[in-house]
Specification:
Layout: E1 3-7, H1 15-26, E2 31-34, H2 44-47, E3 50-53, H3 62-65, H4 73-78, E4 87-92, E5 106-111, H5 122-125, H6 133-151, E6 156-159, H7 162-172, E7 177-178, E8 199-202, H8 211-221, E9 225-228, H9 234-240, E10 245-249, H10 253-262, E11 265-268, H11 276-283, E12 288-291, H12 296-299, E13 313-316, H13 321-334, H14 340-347, H15 352-369
Parallel strand pairs: 1-2, 1-4, 2-3, 4-5, 5-6, 6-7, 8-9, 8-11, 9-10, 11-12, 12-13
């Protein structure tokens, strides 16, 4: 059986690439098709694959400015041919699901979200895209229409959360099977060292992450905040950060884990489709202070809601710096209710083994419908 894995772009290891890495282990003989690849930017499970790229990858310096060419991406993915494959597994938050394939093939899409640049977080991105916000506004209707049409290219949608499943239903009129994104619970573990006084934020410096609100809130609070991550807002955020706030840029997983193990709590002010970082933090015994919307509603057990598994954090609304300030102050009053052992046990429910089992179970009916054998690798380990 010929298998293609399709991913929007390969320029770094974020949440989507962590899912992709596990799929590459599940399907080690697959070809990996992507618009853009910056060699060495991903882990060894991804980099060892037979990687095919689009014509965009040949443009000079593309890895630095690819986000600004969103209008070209539907055409670029349409020119990448997957018609020779029996099984296509797309990992899509932008255009990957639109790749041409044979009608006889099975196409399963693991959808991180419908194209966020023109749907639910469009306003956050309009100032970041090619030719400014007015251009994206002019193109949004065309891109939304393409996004809807390309959903017809998919036999089976899987979503990384109930939040995204509802979004797929709303925008595409399609149902989706929820298969929660996995964390590496064997790597992200607590240790016996002491907690320190700093708060932590981990993630790409992109508009929807609302790092700006965290910076504003902690400038007022005066508490130490460390921010790990890189992205298009780096320069602007660095200029706004007060002296108690440290922007650390990209860091290795080992450094991230050490900060999870030492922080007082993790801050999560964005509305995420799912969000792996809060679960990684909880796996290391750190509670989470999160904006109460999106994937956080499925991963953070709020201190105000009794649960036999929690609490694992504190949820706040509305999505403002003032609400975050009040949440931090509340956390400091009730911090003793968070038990590291419970946090770790809860996070382990989202480990790699569960993802592999749920992904296989979701895919099996489609394989049977298409008359395809199950292509699991015997070497796949959770």
């Amino acid at each position: 059986m010929r298998i293609a894995i399709v991913h929007d772009w390969l320029t770094g290891m974020r949440g989507g690439e962590k899912v992709l890495s596990l799929l590459c282990r599940m399907f080690p003989a697959a070809d990996l098709l992507t618009l853009i690849h910056r060699p060495g930017s991903c882990d060894s499970d991804i980099e060892r694959m037979n990687i095919r790229t689009s014509y965009l990858n040949r443009l000079p310096g593309m890895a630095r400015y690819y986000r600004y060419l969103l209008p070209l991406m539907p055409g670029a993915i349409a020119r990448m041919d997957a018609r020779d494959y029996d099984l296509v597994v797309s990992c899509s938050h932008c255009v990957a699901k639109g790749i041409p394939r044979s009608p006889r093939a099975a196409h399963a899409c693991y959808c991180f979200t419908p194209m966020r640049y023109v749907w639910d977080t469009a306003e956050d991105y309009r100032s970041q895209m090619v030719l400014g916000g007015w251009a994206l506004r002019m193109l949004s209707a065309r891109l939304r229409a393409w996004d809807r049409r390309s959903a017809d290219n998919v036999d089976l949608f899987m979503s990384n959360s109930r939040t995204v499943a509802e979004r797929i239903e709303r925008h595409y009129g399609r149902s989706a099977t929820v298969v929660y994104s996995p964390i590496d619970a064997e790597f992200f573990t607590p240790d016996s060292g002491p907690r320190e006084d700093f708060y932590l934020m981990v993630g790409a410096l992109a508009p929807y992450k609302r790092t700006d609100q965290a910076i504003e809130a902690f400038a007022t609070l005066g508490r130490p905040l460390r921010i790990i991550g890189s992205g298009p807002q780096w320069r602007t955020l660095h200029q706004r950060a007060a002296s108690n706030i440290s922007l650390m840029g990209w860091q290795s997983d080992t450094v991230v884990r050490e900060h999870y193990r030492r922080c007082r709590a993790m801050i999560f002010p964005g509305r995420e489709d799912f969000g792996l970082a809060p679960l990684e933090a909880m796996a290391c015994g750190a509670p989470v202070i999160a904006y109460g919307a999106g994937g956080a509603l499925e991963t953070v057990l709020d201190s105000a809601t009794p649960s036999p598994d929690g609490p694992t954090g504190l949820l706040y609304t509305p999505q403002t710096a003032d609400a975050l300030i009040e949440a931090v102050r509340t956390f400091e009053r009730i911090g003793g209710v968070f038990r590291p052992g419970r946090l770790t046990a809860w996070a382990r429910r989202f480990d790699r083994g569960r993802f592999i089992e749920d992904f296989r179970r979701a895919l099996q009916p489609l394989l049977r419908l298409k008359g395809l054998a199950e292509p699991w690798s015997n070497s796949t380990q959770p």
